[in-house]
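Blackboard transcription, Thursday session:
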Amino acid sequence: MSEEHGKPGQGIGARVPRKEDSRHLHGRGQYVSDTVIPGQREVAFLRSPVAHGIIRGIRKPANSEGRVFTRADLAEAKDIVAPSTLPTYKLSGQPPLAHGKVRFVGEPVVMCVARTRAEAEDLCEQVELDIEELPALVDSDVARFEKSNRVHEDWDDNLFLTLSADNGFDALSKKATVVVNREVELSRQAMVPMEGKAVVAYWDERADQLIMYYSTQTPHIVRTGIAQFLGLDEGQVRIIAPDVGGGFGYKVIVHPEELSVAWLAMKYRKPFRWIEDRREHLVSGANARQHHYRLTAYADDKGRLLALDAEITIDGGAYSNWPFTIGLEPGQATGNLPGPYDFQGYRCKTYCVATNKPGFMPYRGVARTGVCFAMELLMDAIARAVDRDPYEVRMENLVRPEQMPYDNVVKKHYDSGNYPAALALAREKFDHSKWAERQKKGEPDGRKIGIGYASYCEQSAHGTSVFATWGLPLVPGYDQSAVKLTPDGGLEVRVGVHSHGQGMETTFAQLAHEILGIDVQKIKITHGDTGTTPYSTGTYASRSIVMAGGATLKACQELIPRIVKIGAFLLGCKEDEARFDKALGVVGPDGRAVELKEICTVWYLRPDRAPLDVDRRGLEVSVSYKPDRDTGAFSYASHAVAVAVDTETGQVEILDYVIAEDCGTLVNPMVVEGQTLGGVAQGIGTAMYEEIQYDANGQPNASTLADYLLPGPTEIPNMRIYHMETPSPYTMYGIKGMGEGGAIAPPAVIFNAVNDALRATGVEVSKTPLTPHRLLEEIERARHQQMPKREAA
Amino acid sequence: MKAAAFEYLKPQDVPGAVKALAGSAGDAKPLGGGQSLGPMLNLRLARPKLLVDVSRLEAMRTIEDKGAFWRIGGAVTHSAIEDANLAGCTVMSDVARNIAYRTIRNRGTIGGSLAHADPAADWPLALPALAATIVIAGPAGERSVPAGKFMKGAFATELAEDELVVAVEVPKLSPGARWGYWKFCRKTGEFPEASAAMLMDPERKLARLWVGALDGAPQSLDALAADIAMRGTQAVSETSVSAALDLAVPGQEPVSRRLHVTAVRRAVQKGFN
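(Written on the board underneath:)
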């Protein structure tokens, strides 16, 4: 990074190198697919070749008993049903294998088992599917009004749910002197973690448990789901998530394939394995980002936003997911659209529409990449309408620091921060005037320079009260951390969240180090196993460091009096004369100290040396935590970019990318930067590369990485990240979550920059991804229309 | 996706490979570096009963200086060409260097690429522009085909089912020759959306201009090439390139046309820079 930011030592704020990196960099990580259980069988799924149809028959090959399974065979397995208390929400049961109907290309229909995956696929080829094709519902704008052709027959339309908000809209919109309309759209994409879904399941006779090695972010809630859908006691299910190669929300869901493999293991009491391949992922995991916005901004002459009118359509795909439900996306879209801005009039109607595509799932940034894209393009559009610098218009509208904590137009409670300062920092570090000059001068190669800004705030670590409003069947509460000192003075920390790349083995050790001073190399974090960790709903929604991290801090704090008690006895002083010192151990009034290691040895190995009234709860404790106010700690950032646009090819090159971010107290700046870099890389994917289009029959046009483009190392610019630290008033040490933020702003900031570059041509792009083809089409269109394409109404 | 079952054969020599191909009634495929065939096998889009691995045949792995031209074995990898910097043919290294990624270049072969005949691939464009010759081995021995006549369409070539690309012969460029090669890829390592190659070699009386990444095989723009030979870059304008493409590649949709016009203009520009 351009400016080293970090504290010395190993505690909160230190740039401690990630403990987990050595095994990953040496290829010694242990993922589900590295798990081999003797005798395991491989599973392959035959998937629906059509988007919408009635299953008239399934003919299994001869002599395939016990190797080929349909829904009818999985009698003990229930359909995956995700209830929600949101008004207007309709239930959509998802069978583990399609039953009666198929509802998207790639939906699993038949499960085949063989010694090898290739042979299992051979079996799939021998199954004959007789499917009567129905017209596919592909376009959510059409499906929304379609009543006779329905994804789910027991509904009376194709709407999963409709949400609306109206706060002060009429009164404030009337005061506007400037009205700006825009339509913006994001295409459908997949999450593409490096490791796809993966499961190895077997029955442990001794434990009388279904053991599942399961690539998940949320082992405990997955256990609840698997137990519920198989009719097992929770005690009969153990979920072990080893190294997980990225999740991004895809792995908080109980998927039909995982349930089907669990059923096999329960039924046959043998080990079975299914590893999702990239083609399966791209086809049946095309489940994110597809939003469509119709926006009208009501502003004054200076570009100050008075009221916003929005209609959001979310292409929900075929099924709601368990446990987060499809309500999460429209809920977050409706609630987060106002972004970091201070305005009081808001009207929003959000339609979540069922279509013949894979069911929508929460992807890193959940809805906020879409709402940020919508809102930030709108901010630039307002700036054009009032002929001001988009930066100035943002400054005009951002929530000001003196307003904090700030309840916005939909009563989201922004806890802390200085939003304008982050934007100003981004502009300063970006060196706006340098780029503006270069833009004016023109490039020798004829490319057009564009400058873009985008700001957002990101609700993180929101708890019970927030999730309850989204109507989920399962709401997060307190997170637990169980900490235990070892006889040689090390520490074991057990948490129910799970790292899938966030570096939690390091950051959690830093938190414990902050309290107890133990070397981070001697602090072992155990997570990802329901058999060995306390309950947590898991890792999602940028919550782990605040929730489970907070519990870890508290648990370590709780050990200190117990340590001091033993230490004081060993020093021969009174408890209240001794104090705990992170570096020295327990220190007596005369300055003599007894090391923590010595105290641990006494408790575990030499209790004969311990005081008679020793704290009998010992040197281990399990503590629960959530912030007293659980409406969320809001991280925020502003991004600034410069791009060069080649109008002859439609190619966009990012020349500079600056991020000014504030995620409260930094636990490890290097980890924050790593999370930000990864998130921005994904956001660049959304902005410029990733897309699965569907033809009129609902066939996806991308099923391999030859068709589905991901940004690679040469497409990701060198980003410059600058930190601000405004502690949250509500969390331990003022820490905020930040795992998602990087993925939120890139489409907004890149499109704003491209539109800036092309302003003179009248081109204004507003649909992701910005492929060269799409951009060239717009350029051609503008060439043939003398007038700019859209102008403020 | 995993490949359907197939047999694998590693022949001793080129005749052995040809014999194996001839003996399997069209159910065999030669395997080079496997960078295209491998994924196609796994996706079960290609389902040969037999794979004849020619990637280890010594006779196909050599690069020889034949005086006026270089003979490059069909199983020579892109990275070997990239690193070779052949005297008089360094442009071959420049082309090779921009094929996909180095990891792919380490395995992918020039013969395999030609035989696969992806319309957007580099060799099917570069070799015709360089006036190269493709050497084919079959049951009757070797025959040669001008590179410009080798590819018949998308994924279709001159090769019979029992034939192999054993070598390509690339003439050396004169010292005063101008070579321009330009392709537009959405990102590093992707197949291009448009590509073009130009060779102006007055000493050898060669004026060649080819355009690639079309629906079918690369096409030559002979008249424009001849005009460039006479008038240099003055012959190249939006209008002249569009007109040339109208003849060679009629019916292109506007965005593709725009990209190909750009490719041709920039290839020429690079040649004259």
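Lecturer's comment: The longest helix of chain B spans residues 254-272.
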